[in-house]
Amino acid sequence: MSAFRIQQRAKSQYTILELHGELDAHTSPQLEDMLQNLIKEDRIKIIVNCQNLDYIASAGLGVFMAYIEDLRQRGGDIKLSNMKPRVFNVFDLLGFPTLYDIFETEDQAIHQFSAMN
């Protein structure tokens, strides 16, 4: 099992979270804490780069579901980018593409946020 970690960086008013490894019931609290802190800091425009995410379980998907409404009510959002096919398939299976914007690249996600303003 690959160790899960989150790298955070800022790109103008956007927060980029790079997920590495496997997001499951054991590691999803790390993402939850990160999102809670970002909301407290009013950093509500979040792009999750999944380029190095090898696996996502339903617990990981649940974290996204838990915070999306709060972010959108505050005028923010979560956009997802750079998904590997097998990670995208999990999102797709559960209907996430209808709820979230999923992009091939981080720059496309940033462009979409810019277009919203």
Strand and helix layout:
Blueprint: E1 5-11, E2 14-23, H1 28-40, E3 45-56, H2 58-73, E4 77-81, H3 85-93, H4 96-99, E5 101-103, H5 106-116
Parallel strand pairs: 2-3, 3-4, 4-5
Antiparallel strand pairs: 1-2
Write up what this structure looks like:
With 117 residues, the chain is an alpha/beta fold. The mean pLDDT is 94. It has one domain (5-116): STAS domain (Transcription Regulator spoIIAA, 2-Layer Sandwich). The protein has a five-stranded mixed beta sheet, with helices on both faces. The chain has five helices and five strands. 45% of the residues lie in helices and 32% in strands. Strand 1 and strand 2 form a beta hairpin. The chain has helices spanning 28-40, 58-73, 85-93, 96-99, 106-116; strands at residues 5-11, 14-23, 45-56, 77-81, 101-103. Helix 1 packs parallel to helix 2.
Summarize this structure as a short list of keywords or feature phrases.
117 residues; alpha/beta; Transcription Regulator spoIIAA; 5-stranded mixed β-sheet; 5 helices
Overall pLDDT score: 94
Based on CA atoms alone, the radius of gyration comes out at 13 Å
Order of helical and strand elements? EEHEHEHHEH
Main beta sheet: 5 strands, mixed
In the CATH scheme, what's the topology name?
Transcription Regulator spoIIAA
Q: What's the β-strand tally?
A: 5
Q: Which CATH class applies here? A: Alpha Beta
Detail the poorly predicted runs: none
Nutshell version of this structure?
With 117 residues, the chain is of the alpha/beta class. It has five helices and five strands.
